[in-house]
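Fold it.
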Amino acid sequence: MVAGAACGLVLPGVDDELWAAVPLVLRSRVRSVAFRMASPVKGPLAAKENRAVRGAVQAAARGRVSGRQWRALLTAPREVFGSGRSERAADFYRVLESVVAEYVKPALKGPDSRELAAPAPADAGTTGA
């Protein structure tokens, strides 16, 4: 189990297909708030010990987030992104929480739920054999 926005979840490995399948709308949200976090990098995020998270934020701002970077973002404690009074850190963390709520949690429920980009069509007109 992990901390951060993905608190309480057992996340898949960095090479898992789940990370490559994050829906475009969520990646776009992360990119827009990450850009604010990455320029300029301030507070705890600028600290040497937070280099991996800082690199993940910068990758997100460029729109190129790998599995390793998703894990760094989703497991970093809220405080790494900035103080409790930082509006941009709060915005960024809320977006990460939405990625977890809207994609990661449902995708981890089972292999069939990983196809979240397009909802499955309703089979209203079909009958069983």
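Residues 113-129 have pLDDT under 50 and may be disordered.
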